[in-house]
Amino acid sequence: MNPREDLTLGVGALIKLERGDRLAWSLLSVGARRQRRRVTVPAAALAQVWRGKGHPNLIRALRAFELESMSPELARAAGTLCGLAHTADVVDAAVMASAATRGDTVLTTDHDDLARLAEVVPTVRVIGI
Fold this sequence. Notes:
Blueprint: E1 7-9, H1 11-18, H2 22-34, E2 39-42, H3 43-49, H4 56-62, E3 66-68, H5 72-85, H6 90-102, E4 105-108, H7 111-118, E5 125-128
Parallel strand pairs: 1-2, 1-4, 2-3, 4-5
Helix pairs in contact: 1-3, 1-4, 5-6
């Protein structure tokens, strides 16, 4: 990753953080903080991951990240991306639309689905973790 690239987290990245995955934590805590990258979590991605009670690792991670609300503009952009990429996953599309507004790199475990959306949004780079 370029040291100046800001990051947007996909659902899979959040799941890895919640499970305590060392690679995910290393990429974010060391890479993002030391290199002063902004890390954004779209609210739609958080909603996809948040199940049941607890989530101590996710709560800890969210303290360091910017949580982005689902604005009407972001909702329309996500819907438009779904149509252009011929996909129905609104959460993945919201992650990509969010990243596109800033030119972020997306971290995800769902590289194939997000890469399909990235074909429509060439300003966003997708990195699988």
